[in-house]
Specification:
- A hairpin with a 5-residue loop joins strand 13 and strand 14.
- The N and C termini lie far apart (76 Å).
- The chain has seven helices and 20 strands.
- It is an alpha+beta fold and 355 residues long.
């Protein structure tokens, strides 16, 4: 029985937001550790705001629940709230109890893939909510760093971020990954790394060592292969960087790739969608929906903070539109050549020595 197995605790620290995950299931622990490997922390790394998750691979006990009436309906679950407690029912497949005051989540499910997905998305939404209060906001973009400068590529889901990520990781230095999907931007417009495991669609596993690849089934979408960041070696950004380029990505049925300069208005429209509204970012709406007037004021303040951070980012950046063709390698080479021609990643000249 799972209750006889030793419990593994994984400690994470994401830019100061801390999380612990406890589970007796060895495979679940391995997956979560791979998901957030860059943010592994020691037991003493807990900050002021800490989220505790306990995950159990077993059938949920619905008979022990109070007879509450549903308060929130989402495509993936139904929520029942009572004071600080929220019961989250994944249509009979999984059950989670979130205690808002204690910032703890107990989740039970007898499907490993679903249990993993719930834990992953909970960490993503809770960490993001905590950091947003500190002025760090996610942006739906692929982020690339070189020599302390950042280039961001804003594209819709399925727009080609993962293919670009792989292409630049293969190139190696000076390019480093900030995030394949959602970097953080602070109030001054600086970009902070948020690299997570990378997902690939397709019927065949991607060409990486098997120990780094996991196939999962998902709640609402097609199955996906997850590749741990350990597969990419030392290609990850470690510090905040100064934003220099903002690319608004579009797909084309042609083979070639083209880049053209664009105005700030083009960049602002893309930032409104991908950062202020957060289209494409998992927001954890089952936790975020509130009913009090104070909560509504808080959400308005959050929107203002996002707008300010987005504007600070835009002021730092050149804006370009990149048209991505069907040839992934040609896309990467065209963008690489464009960045190289503008000195992206080149060492900055130091002060002149004595003559």
């Amino acid at each position: 029985m799972s209750g006889d197995r030793p419990v593994r605790t994984i400690e994470l620290s994401v830019h100061g937001a801390t999380v612990s995950v406890e589970s007796a299931d060895e495979e679940l622990g391995r997956r979560v550790a791979d998901d957030f490997s860059v943010f592994a922390a020691g037991e003493t790394a807990r900050g002021g705001e800490h989220l505790s998750i306990r995950a159990s691979l077993r059938r949920p006990d619905y008979d022990s629940l109070p007879p509450l009436t549903a308060t929130v309906y989402t495509p993936r679950n139904i929520c029942y709230s009572e004071g600080d407690l929220t019961y989250i029912d994944y249509f009979g497949r999984a059950l989670a109890l979130y205690d808002r005051r204690r910032r703890s989540l107990d989740v039970t499910c007898d499907d490993l893939d679903l249990l993993h997905e719930i834990v992953y998305l909970t960490i993503l939404s809770r960490v993001s909510e905590t950091l947003e209060r500190d002025g760090l906001h996610r942006i739906h973009a692929f982020g690339l760093e070189a020599a302390g400068e950042a280039a961001l590529f804003l594209m819709p889901s399925g727009g080609g971020k993962t293919t670009l990520t792989l292409g630049f990781l293969k190139l190696g230095p000076p390019f480093r990954l900030i995030s394949e999907d959602s970097p953080f931007v602070d109030r001054t417009g600086r970009v902070h790394p948020f690299p997570l495991r990378i997902g690939f669609l397709g019927s065949e596993p991607p060409p990486f060592p098997p120990e780094h690849v996991t196939r999962i089934r998902r709640m609402e979408f097609a199955p996906k292969y997850l590749v741990a960041l350990a597969a990419f070696g030392d290609c990850l950004a470690g510090d905040a960087s100064v934003a220099r380029f903002l690319f608004v990505g579009k797909r084309s049925l042609g083979r070639g790739c083209a880049i053209r300069s664009a105005g700030k208005w083009t960049g602002w429209k893309a930032l409104l969608e991908g950062m202020v509204v957060g289209v494409g970012l998992y927001q954890g709406v089952e936790f975020l929906l509130r009913t009090s007037i104070l909560d509504l004021f808080g959400m308005a303040g959050l929107a203002i903070s996002r707008v300010r951070a987005a504007w600070a980012l835009l002021r730092r950046c050149e804006v370009h539109v990149v048209i991505l063709g069907r040839d992934g390698q040609a896309n990467v080479e065209t963008i690489r050549a464009f960045l190289a021609a503008r000195g992206f990643g080149a060492p900055r000249p130091g002060p002149a020595g004595p003559g």
